[in-house]
Design goal:
It contains eleven helices and six strands. Helix 5 crosses helix 8. Strands 1-6-5-2 form a four-stranded parallel beta sheet. A two-stranded antiparallel ribbon has the order 3-4. It has one domain: Rossmann fold (3-Layer(aba) Sandwich), CATH 3.40.50. Bound molecules: zinc ion (2 copies).
């Protein structure tokens, strides 16, 4: 956008805090008060699964990773905790058409993905919605995040190679074990050639138990992807 046009828009429609609506002087997305309430995951994490470490140190592999023999991920990363404070930012974005949140959320994805960009990646891929759900919701929030993130990473986006063939019930209706069952065999790779040997970064808004992301990763790895990372804005962290 032209700088003069941007200035004009900022005078007529000044940027507002995405959480409380307060007028902002800069373009940070959130006012100081709201920003200070967001809990960031930070750098003290497990290098593999990205789970925050209470010790305050980075570890190569945490107990969660050591006990998990079916790990299809290279890296898993998230930027913030999914909690009372961050929930409106993500829920409004996902369900209430507040698509303007995508820009800030994608900036956070970019920062959380530092290790991924350094190691190298080939494709960004949104977690797909079933076409019936997409028709109902009108947009896929993960695809919007990919679009913004692609501007920063310069990576291509693949919207079509991974397909959701089962219109599963929303995961919020299930607990851990049943979540896994709910998404079992929910995805297929439609275009094997496009993903073969590729390092794929799966993008989503929130990771709760990770069942959906795991199912996608397993499907992609079995179809011949070289590696799969999971990059989400927020993550549910059980204390
Ligand atoms: Zn605010
Ligand atoms: Zn770990």
């Amino acid at each position: 956008m032209y700088p003069w046009l941007k200035n004009l828009i900022n005078i007529v429609l000044p940027p507002r805090c995405l959480l409380c609506g307060k007028i902002l002087s800069g373009e940070n997305g959130l006012c100081g008060d709201c920003f200070s309430k967001i809990k960031f995951i930070g750098r003290s994490i497990c290098h593999k699964c990205g789970h925050p470490q209470l010790s305050g140190r980075c570890v190569q592999s945490c107990p969660l990773c050591t006990n998990n023999h079916h790990n299809f991920f290279r890296f898993q990363r998230s930027y913030i905790y999914y909690d009372e404070q961050s929930r409106p930012l993500l829920v409004d974005f996902k369900f209430h058409d507040k698509t303007e949140n995508a820009e800030l959320l994608a900036k956070w994805l970019y920062q959380a993905g530092n290790d991924i960009w350094q190691q190298g990646a080939d494709i960004l891929m949104p977690v797909p919605l079933h076409r019936a759900r997409l028709r109902y919701r009108k947009y896929n929030q993960s695809a919007l995040l990919c679009k913004e993130l692609a501007k920063m990473t310069k990576l291509p986006i693949d919207y079509t190679s991974l397909i959701r063939i089962k219109n599963t019930k929303p995961q919020v209706e299930f607990d851990g074990k049943n979540r896994k069952r709910n998404v079992k065999n929910a995805f297929i790779v439609k275009n094997v050639k496009a993903i073969k040997g590729k390092r794929i970064v799966l993008i989503d808004d929130i990771m709760t138990t990770g069942s959906t992301l795991k199912e996608c990763a397993e499907t992609l790895i079995k179809a011949g992807a070289e590696s799969v990372d999971a990059l989400t804005v927020a993550r549910v962290i059980k204390s």
